TrEMBL record:
Gene Ontology biological process terms in this record: DNA integration
Superkingdom of the organism of origin: Bacteria
Organism encoding this protein: Nocardiopsis sinuspersici
Domain (Integrase catalytic) ranges: 130-317
Region of interest (Disordered), residue spans: 153-172
InterPro entries (UniProt xref): DNA-bd_IS481-type, Homeodomain-like_sf, Integrase_cat-core, IS481-like_transpos, RNaseH-like_sf, RNaseH_sf
Gene Ontology MF term list: nucleic acid binding
Protein name (record): Transposase InsO family protein
Pfam family, one: rve_3
Length: 321
């Protein structure tokens, strides 16, 4: 990278060198013309003679001899531990006896990406993507949560008392199914808590999600789901066809493809479902619409540069305070 105060860019160096080598200028003439030192003019002229145009770029500032550099055997050990166990510089330092900063430099020197860029299960680099327009792709998935009995569960009463509080009439037992449709481009989310994840339930949710996005000026063109039973039945395909939506499915055993909605479900678990102790399932579900509204209209999203999801839908007219 050229220093901001450098008098010569690579293009200027080439012009200077050609004036000396090809046009016969003296070094003093070239130095005066390009406002550089005599030794600078000689350096670029010499590099042009030996390497031509390719020699006009900056060279690495790394010393040719580094007697204090970690030996190759230890560097290969660091690389092997990182590849096999997918651990960071601090844990690598504990295993090798090096400083964490040294391990970090070794990883960078060998071109190994940070752990945040890897799929922890396979070690492969995560390929991130984002559709260009809202509605180009909507991710759909279901999150299951155990219901809270009246009076509170184990988070309020403790393990023993929480088990004893399971009501014999069935209140607080079972599972709540959170259906979510999340726009790939804006991360805008439409979500409902439903009683099951049957094919008819999923199809009905898709119709309501499609109408909600349409009311905000977003035309849903494709939906992406996993290969759950409800999403592969004729009911789902027929509903997509009636709405003019192209259904897509992720590759089996690759939930990362649907990772945006998976991440939304992780957020709701942290910031709504388990954010505070609830005394009943009704109390928790009553707080859910406020959470979704806050997520869409007020919560900065790091995946879209700190914007709120609604800010990426330019014709969304509804106001939220």
């Amino acid at each position: 990278m050229v220093h901001r105060n450098a008098p010569l860019t690579p293009t200027g160096r080439l012009r200077l060198a050609r004036c000396v080598v090809e046009d016969g200028w003296t070094l003093r003439q070239a130095a005066e013309r390009f406002q550089v030192a005599h030794t600078t003019a000689q350096r670029w002229a010499d590099r042009y003679r030996t390497r031509g145009r390719a020699g006009m770029g900056d060279r690495s500032s790394i010393p040719r001899h580094q007697p204090g550099r970690t030996c190759d055997r230890i560097e290969q050990q660091v690389v092997r531990l990182r590849t096999e166990h997918r651990i960071g510089p601090v844990r690598l330092a504990a295993r090798t006896g090096l400083a964490p900063a040294t391990c970090h430099r070794i990883l960078r020197r060998h071109g190994l990406p940070p752990l945040t860029a890897l799929d922890r299960a396979t070690g492969e680099v995560v390929r991130r993507y984002e559709r260009d327009q809202p509605g180009d792709l909507v991710h759909i998935d279901v999150k299951k949560l155990g219901r809270i009995p009246d009076g509170g569960g184990h988070k309020v009463l403790g393990r023993a008392a929480g088990r004893a509080n399971k009501n014999p009439d069935g209140t607080g037992k079972g599972t709540a199914f959170i259906h979510t449709a999340l726009d790939d481009h804006s991360r805008l989310a439409y979500s409902e808590i439903l009683a099951d994840e049957k094919a008819a339930t999923c199809a009905g949710f898709l119709c309501r999600a499609h109408a909600w996005f349409a009311a905000g000026g977003v035309t849903v063109r494709r939906v992406l789901t996993d290969n759950a039973w409800a999403y592969t039945k004729a009911t789902w395909r027929r509903t997509c066809g009636e709405l003019g939506i192209g259904p897509r499915w992720i590759r089996p055993w690759r939930p990362q493809t649907n990772g945006k909605v998976e991440r939304f479900h992780r957020t709701l678990a942290q910031e709504w479902a388990y954010a505070r102790p609830y005394l009943s399932e009704a109390e928790r579900q009553a707080a859910y619409p406020d959470f979704v509204d806050w997520y869409n209209y007020h919560r900065p999203h790091t995946g879209i540069g700190g914007q709120v999801p609604a800010a990426r839908v330019t014709n969304l007219t509804e106001k939220h305070t």
